[in-house]
Specification:
two-stranded antiparallel ribbon; about 30% helix; 13 strands; globular; binds zinc ion; alpha/beta; 7-stranded mixed sheet; about 260 residues; Rossmann fold; about 20% strand; 9 helices
């Protein structure tokens, strides 16, 4: 009887410890923390997405599955990590030259671990000294300098998309890969871009963020083809059919923008 009671106490103590250290069974798992997590912290912008953005079923972050409590990654970075892992892109980076705009922290760490020969991190507004000040519309590198360019959530900000794409194409080697996630509306056949909409409130309402200057439509793919890239928007289910988007905290509507310089 006493032994049974002691055993119960031990089991109870173990459970308390597991809960305290977050080791209890969870419905959520972070690909970056590499362990179960308590859940996803939602993204709360003032008033949420505008009726215009909602009506156009704009594909971007999933606001309900946004930040990981453990590593503070957002859903887009976790999704990218899952795409890279599944496609085993890390292995091919050893000895390669990579240009990474607005580098996501955990993706950048994983790239460093893959031992590229040259890894340039660039941003128009560098957050620290490891990042060079680079304008994507005038990249200060010679032709065919890179094997891979990563440019996520940039194209909706730049003033001239065609100039940016021409520059990326110029600095990529033939056959070099171009990964360029960007928000877009699957209901717009043409990109919505109105130069008269300069007001930050207008941009928030029509483009989804006050520093976006356009909302891409499904023509994004054709625009990339016209700029000299082959490739497509690869659906989540095609690459990650086993990944439950709720469990892993990603947006299953967000495709992988996978292109190659031709
Ligand atoms: Zn995490």
């Amino acid at each position: 009887m006493l032994r049974k009671f002691r055993k119960k106490i031990r089991t109870f103590n173990l459970k308390v410890k597991q809960i305290a250290f977050g080791q209890t069974a969870s419905n959520f798992e972070c690909v970056i923390c590499k362990r179960p997590v308590a859940g996803w912290r939602p993204y709360r912008s003032e008033g949420g997405p505008s009726p215009f953005i909602r009506r156009l079923a704009t594909v971007g972050s999933n606001a309900e599955r946004f930040a990981c409590e453990g590593c503070h990654s957002n859903d887009r970075e976790r999704h990218l990590m899952l795409f890279f892992n599944k496609l085993d892109l890390w292995k091919g980076l050893e000895g390669k030259a990579i240009l990474h705009f607005a580098p996501e922290r955990h993706i950048a760490d994983a790239i460093m671990t893959a031992q590229p020969a040259n890894y340039v991190r660039g941003d128009l507004f560098p957050a620290n000294e490891s990042i060079q000040k680079i304008n994507i519309e005038a990249i200060p590198y010679p032709d065919a300098a890179f094997d891979l360019v990563i440019c996520n959530h940039i194209l909706e900000h730049v003033s001239n998309v065609e100039a940016a794409l021409a520059e990326v194409r110029r600095v990529l080697k033939v056959g070099g890969r171009f990964i360029c996630q960007t928000p877009y509306s699957s209901k717009l056949s043409r990109t919505f871009e109105e130069p008269a909409l300069q007001d930050t409130d207008d941009r928030l309402f029509f483009y989804g963020q006050n520093d976006h200057v356009r909302l891409f439509g499904t023509d994004i793919e054709a625009r990339l083809h016209a700029a000299g890239f082959a490739g497509r928007l690869v659906p989540h289910d095609e690459i990650l059919p086993q990944i439950d988007p709720v469990r892993w905290g990603v947006n299953e509507r967000e495709p992988f923008f996978d292109f190659v310089r031709i």
